[in-house]
Amino acid sequence: MKRSMMRTVAALSAALLLLPAAVPAQQGAVTQWHAHAQTLVAGFTGRGNAAQAYTMALIQIAVYDATVAVRGAQGQRVPAPFYPGLVAPLGADLNAAVATAAFRVGDERVNKNDAARARFRNAYETTLAAIADGKAKVDGIAVGEAAAKAVLAARANDNFYNTATYANPAATVGVWQAAAAANPSTTAGANDYAMAFTLPLTASTPGARRIKPPPRLGSGRYARDFDETKTLGALASATRTPAMTDVVQFWTESGFTLWARNARNIVIARGLDELEAARALAVFSVATGDAMLACFDAKYAHLFWRPWQAIQRAGEDNDPRTQADAAWTPTVRANHPEYPAGHGCYSGSATRALRLLFGDFAVTLTSSGAQVAGWPAATSAHFDSLDDINDANADARVWGGLHWRTTMERSARWTARIAQDAVCGRFGLACDKGRFDVDD
Fold it and tell me: Which of 70, 83, 66 is nearest to 150 (CA)?
């Protein structure tokens, strides 16, 4: 395998010797290309948080493996790559390797939005133009090409581009149904349905780590959750305070965009070197990517109805404790099943990945969330610990009328364990996976 990869690098090097001369390379290629990748992936037309998180994981694996190869060739002690076999020539330019690895995977996997793809290509060409011509540049590009090729080959049959069309089941009590057209309670369609079939990076099947079913209708837990969301999550709630609505607004930004930006900012603030940064962003991206795949597999397996459906149709659930309100609408809308919660899955896996990397710490996160119409943006929020992030995230989705409290709490705990299972023993993380119990 190593000989084959070396031949690939050598062949690519030979083919790239005629690149034009340019100025010296810039520093911080890992975080720069994470930002370029975020912009590309956020513009992945027709794809939601699960698809975006997974796509970013593929890009960051390639960046990480390329960085490990270049630094290893320099004699630096390095952790094991995600995909073994890549050996870099001594002196290969790291900036060229990182940019090429990120570009090739992103350009290949993001097959929609020509404008975003063109901007991504322009960023790559600008990066290469800033690196002086010579063998180091050529070898760096070749390393990046080889790292990308390994990732693309490994994920060629991952079912990501599955074209299955979601068909609504019968309108059974407790079962979610997609809306054909947007209405005050929901946006249209079944978001990221294809993610229910996508093979995870670190488990054998999409449902290998599936969460247990939601609380049963008629249970005391369900009734308590019902009352809380009905009271505090309504668009016209008289109980939700302005401060609570600020929390809702903060967490309405796309989970992918919010977490990608904030994870990168945390890495930058810690002053990590390129290898440490590549490792941290790969750990974070694989943890959240696999957690979000598991999340959407489970959503379409359990098909649990949203609060707006449950509250409007409560007269059908045979529980005198849940009173129907046919006019009830949520503060924030979504178009995929309620259980587990996408934001809860993202937050639980993200905070666990950060804890594995850096321990617990206080942090200020930023947001551009603006889905609560007519409400000002809440652009930053400070958290004294990573656990506080999950608590605030749960509050936001309940107070926004999107989820039940139990769903948010279970989702975060469950995907924290998925994150740990996904990355421990990889990337040089020697943490204890523990026992993965799907019946949390």
Answer: 83
Alpha-carbon distance 301 to 166, whole Å?
12
Report whether 430 contacts 80 (CB < 8 A).
Answer: no
| CB distance 126 to 76 below 8 Å | no
More confident residue, 384 or 6: 384
Q: Are residues 132 and 225 in the same domain?
A: no
Task: Give me the chain's average pLDDT, please.
Answer: 93
Q: Identify whether residues 125 and 199 lie together within a single domain.
A: no
Q: Give per-residue burial for 375-395: e unless 16+ CB within 10 Å, then b.
A: beebeebebeebebbbebbbb
Query: Would you say residue 315 lies in a domain?
Result: yes
Q: What is the pLDDT of residue 174?
A: 97
184 DSSP 8-state letter: T
Q: What is this structure's pTM? A: 0.93
DSSP state letters, 107-140: HHH--S-HHHHHHHHHHHHHHHHTS--SHHHHHH
CATH code for position 109: 1.20.144
Domain assignment present for residue 266? The answer is yes
Distance CA 299, CA 193 (A): 9
Quote the domain boundaries for residue 34: 2-154
Write down which residue in 136, 154, 172 finishes a domain.
154
- Its sign, for the CA torsion 343, 346, 352, 355, is negative
User: N- to C-terminal Cα distance for the chain?
Assistant: 40
Report the domain count for the chain: 2
CA angle 10, 11, 13 (to 5 degrees): 65
Residue 262 lies in a domain: yes
